[in-house]
Amino acid sequence: MGGGLLSREEELFSAVDALLEQAVLDPLPEPAERKRLREVAGLTQEQIAKALQTRREAVGNWEAGHTEPRPPKRAAYARLLEGLAARFPAPPSSASTSTAAASASPTVAPAQEAPAPEALTGPASEPRAMTAPENTATAPAAAVRPAATTKPTSTSRRPGAKKAAPRQLSAVADTSDPRFAHGPLAVIDAGADRRVTAYCVDGLVLDVPAKSLPTLVEWTLKEAQLGAPRLNGAGKDADPLLVLTEAACERYGLPARLPEEDRLAGRLPEGHKVLGQLSRAEWKLTKRGFGPWARIYGPATGGERQCVQLCLPSWDALDARHWGGAAQLPPPELAPLLGTYASRVMTPRGSTAVTGLELMTALRPPTRASAPDAQGKRHSEHSPGSLGVEPVECAPCEAPDGHPLLADLPRFHVRGPGEKLFEEAYDWARPITDTECAKRYLVGIDVNMAFAAGANGLIVGLGAPTHVKAPVFDPKLPGSWRVDLSHVEMSRVKAGKEWVELDGDLLPSPFTPKGERPEGPAWYATPTVAYAVELGYEVRPIEAWVRHDSGRYLDGWYNRLRDAYLATMADLGVDADLAPADFLAAMDGYKERDPELAIVVSAIKATVKGGVGKLRERPRGEGWRPGERWRALMRPTWRPDIRAAVISRTRINLHRKIVKHAAFTGQYPVAVLSDCAVYPSDGTTPLDFLPYRDGKPLPGGFKLGVNPGLVKWEGTQTVLWGEGVREQFNAPELNLARYIKDGTVTDVDNGE
Q1: pLDDT recorded at residue 302
Q2: What is the spatial distance between Cα 159 and Cα 161, in angstroms, rounded to a whole number?
Q3: How far apart are CA 676 and CA 315, in angstroms?
Q4: The pTM is what?
């Protein structure tokens, strides 16, 4: 018995010793160095796979760092790499780059304070250009990370070496994909000594060796390890984003700020020297040219995109209306701010509006890989539930003025409701009644992420419209319907399953943005007509443009933006499960707790509104004339019908709550603007007029909370203030919802 046990122990010890010996004898260089050694030796993955009796895909995974070889193949692979490393040693600059990659691992502790690294001295190599630009130095010869060394790196520093000031806002790079180990973006800055530095989202600081814009692009694609994984398996990885400070712009030959004539054009002039450098290096720009958001790309290599996005805050790339003072932040603070937005929404692709639209496509790619055919090959095919790759023509009633579909109309013809679909947000106000004047205050409540909530679960058309005459209305069929809703009386409607009597004169009509009662047949989106049925009235459409191919295209878009908003608000101390009074307390001064996080919240909300607006983008100069096509019409995401449906549903959602509130409390709003409603009240907060019983709100009515569709406190002013500003500007129906937040009225309300 004892001898058998001893024999078993010796067997186990021998196995452990073999493992230890294997670990000592078979060390492997970094994945990128494995690839470099194979490529510099002129070997293919197939050749190595054949020699090691494995599959080519396995070799590719080893080089990408996705998997590691196992014994006995590991020993043979290590022997091969050791022999190649002896023949083709890594250049010094490449070795230091590898150290940067190694130090990026989250398992490595921050380094101690170290002196500034020395400048790169590695050999230069020719970039993509057939003819190198004059007076420019190129990137180091190594295009990818070579093996790690114990020498101090000259291309990267962990936070201990050069770290941004500690801040509450912290975006952490997703290191699950080694291709993007340094995060989605970097802020590029240049010092007085012309030294260029890249600030990454998690505090990592990289030294940038590139001396020109073309070599900066090369460095970004080959060494910087920037980018983000795709949001959908059938989509594309996010391109790396470089944010150039004013100093970086000047360092790379760009104006710190666009001259006025170029600013109006939105781009650099064609003859600018930087454009010549890019052209000689065989890099291309999109048709919009080199503007505040420039996209530089080249031919795909190995099935991967070769594209870098540039953001120039000093060229007004970060609109202050949506990004606050982000453009003035120092690079160590701007990088995590943008990184937080990138990780929760997506890497910015332009303005918040452009990013909102791009997010739709990223979550619902137009194509996917088909099942293997008889030969085992896959092909690109339409992805169900997407908008496809080709634009579809809108219906004539959905076309905005100037659209080619309307080219035959007389020059000065003005289309009325019977010719044009006009689904817009509310802008309605009425005089304050004598009874309401007896109350002391006007309290504004605002719907959180109203347009996002309007998109949630919304069925929209995916394909082209079909024209039908005298159709039977179907609330599940997206489209545009010409129908007469003038018979709907707001004084007697259904609220739920019961008929209720209301004061119709104190309510806006749900069918027009100005709240006026329609006077005859007009075009409406499906949610508007469905609401007329919900209110208890019969509808008989005269004609319609409907889309039988339909789906919940925006559900994923809503979910991601909702989660981004709630996560950021939670970081600011506003949780989704707070009681009403606690919610109001948490919202008080929440922006001051972390101004940078507050900027992220603002950008997320602007992404929602801007993305919806981009669905019906209008011409933007470029010599366009009415009746001609413009650039946006070439996009599958140019869909005015989807925009109309979202706005229609958002307006209807708000009106439904107003009706529920009026039926239960007898209280009516005096002004409504988009997603804000103003009510007379005896108290100063929403809790003074919103009905709550045992902490529970009115079912179907207004509810305080941070979730999309719930409401927050917008502001409070006195009734005397409201009457005073209306008298001051001689505007008895001045929309007080526009000014309820701070009470400042600077000019006559013109509806803008």
Answers
A1: 72
A2: 5
A3: 33
A4: 0.78
